[in-house]
Amino acid sequence: MDLMLTLSVSLVVALVLGFATQKLGLSPIVGYLIAGIIVGPNTPGFIANHEIAEQLAEIGVVLLMFGVGIHFDLKELLGMRHVALPGAAVQSATATLLGAVAAVFLGSGHGWVSAIVYGLALAVASTVVLTRVLSDADELHTPGGHIAVGWTVVEDILTVLILVILPAVFPPAGSKSGPLGLAVGIAIVKIAALFVFALLVGGRLIPWLLKKVAATKSRELFTLTILVVALGIAFGSAKLFGVSMALGAFLAGMIVGRSDFSLRAASEALPMRDAFAVLFFVSVGMLFDPKVVVESPWLVIATVGIVIVGKPLVSFLIMIALGNTTRSALTVGLALGQIGEFSFILAQMGTQLGVLPQAATSAIVAVAIVTIALSPIIHRLAKPIDTWMHRRTTLARVLTPRQLRAESGIPAQADGAAPAFQAVVIGYGPVGRTLVRLLRENDVTASVIELNLKTIDALRRQGLAAVYGDARQRETLLSAGVATAGSLILSSSTTADSQEIIRVAREINPTIRIIARAAYLRERSPLIIAGADVVLTGEGEVALAMNETILRDLGATPDQIDREREALQTDIGSGEL
Asked: Dihedral sign, CA of 386, 391, 392, 398?
């Protein structure tokens, strides 16, 4: 009875407040947290069973991490080790130090040992919140989004090490501590063993199992198999290897994502993950005690500042120092400006070991609620801050287009081509790749702007013109030859900054023909207003193709098809479709 009552009331209150906050322009996460406060033990009225809510929330974390793993490529994770590993290590150390200083000087009853544990809880961001914020902003699968997720995975791994080390350094009452070096060594071996087992054994067994189940053509069995894989590997990782279930679920998702069933698993097998994720945020809200804000206001304020200002600033500087674009640096930095599930686990262990006062745990919960609530709002500042920075950035030295192209590795013969036979292509995904091939086959010189260094290196080895950089930057467009090109093609429909790119390109070359791609018809007008000559939308092109197919099947003549195509294109262009 408690299970159904807790589940029903929590979801109803979360639905109402999530809808209300969405209407106010805030993330629904804010509403879910407030719902947890309302049904929690520290406010009057109905009190939900926190233990049940916490268990259900743990399932939500597992399913969310499994879904993230499906869409995350191991090669990309390894490719980001030069950014994510040093970045997470330096940022975590800085956040720990700042948190410890705040706890010692602003908290009550904190020694340096307790303060360091307090700081460690602030060092790790919530992967669940981060992925949700990035997904809402359509940036989860951008270069910055991938780095941010990889960054938090490294933080999770570092936190697992800390969780193993803490009991060795501060053993529970009545037990003896082992050598610190041995505890660290065992933790590293366990994590390495999990990765090897999951990728080698699971990488063969799970795809084979999914293939057998898919052959039955039973949707229910396939869904059940995916849930068993996600929950089974997560639970096994915790019990057999001593790591978090979230990390185990992430690995399980990566294995499924490498199989032929990744799309089906993502679309069919995880319909419950959003509901359980809601319960995670509700359970966090239930931990909030308003008295903490009254008793230790300056500690809470300082800690919030460390999380939403200190951590993002350090992360931003690290990203810039490692050679990333300002947009990617802002995406990573602002997305990391919160704490979450691992912070609670660390705090609870510190309390159980007698290292962290209960008041400190309550302060961490208060900070988590504030930072999780503010995280979506703060992340929206990435684009305007980046635009402001770029508009006020001047070149340290003036280079001619020929010099810029030479420094970027663009072949010199591009200068000799007539403008009509020069094109700049932004993005080298499937559409961009096909465009470049067709342009070359028709003797049009094409240069590519990309943010993937591996792609840039591969293009240059093929003798193709390629520029690594942010297409919104004037110098990047100049390097690619926009000043003398006849055409600029935006090949990606997910480019969040197409309008800015078009505006800058039009300033450089007022006569250039700009062709942009958009996913939806509603995105066409803003791009036309920004200066695009032609905007091709996925919705419009599908409508045209279907129209031609139907008319051809009905026996229409080529002239009739052409007339209908022109009429439909007119409707699309006028916005009537």
From this structure: positive
Strand partners, 447: 424, 465
For the chain, the average pLDDT equals 79
Separation CA 226–CA 210 (nearest Å): 8
Helix, strand or coil, per DSSP, at residue 28 = helix
What is the residue-wise DSSP string for 475-541? Answer: HHHHHHTTTT-SEEEE--TT-TTHHHHHHHHHHH-TT-EEEEEESSGGGHHHHHHHT-SEEEEHHHH
Sheet with 487-490: strands ordered across: 465-468, 445-450, 422-426, 487-490, 513-518, 534-537
Instruction: List the chain domain ranges.
Output: 2-389, 401-532
401-532 carries CATH number 3.40.50.720: yes
Residue 197 DSSP code = I
Task: Please determine whether the domains at 2-389 and 401-532 fall in the same fold group of CATH.
Answer: no
Domain 2-389 sits in CATH 1.20.1530.20 = yes
Exposure string for 250-272, b = 16+ CB within 10 A, e = fewer? bbbbbbbbbbebbebbbeebbee
pLDDT in tens, 197-242: 877 888 888 888 888 888 888 878 888 888 888 888 888 888 887 7
Helices (H) and strands (E) in the chain, counts: 29, 6
Q: How many CB atoms lie within 10 A of CB 348?
A: 14
Element (H, E) at 316: helix 311-321
pLDDT (tens digit per residue) in 370-416: 888 888 888 888 878 877 776 665 433 334 444 444 444 444 444 44
Report the pLDDT value the prediction gives residue 408, as an integer from 0 to 100: 44
Q: Which residue reads 């009537």 in tokens?
A: 576
Residues 6+ apart with CB under 8 A from 105: none
Is the pTM higher than 0.70? The answer reads: no
**Cα separation values, 37 from 76, 281, 294, 297, Å:** 39, 10, 16, 19
Which burial class, exposed, middle or buried, applies to 169 when counting CB atoms under 10 A from its CB (0-12, 13-18, 19+)? middle
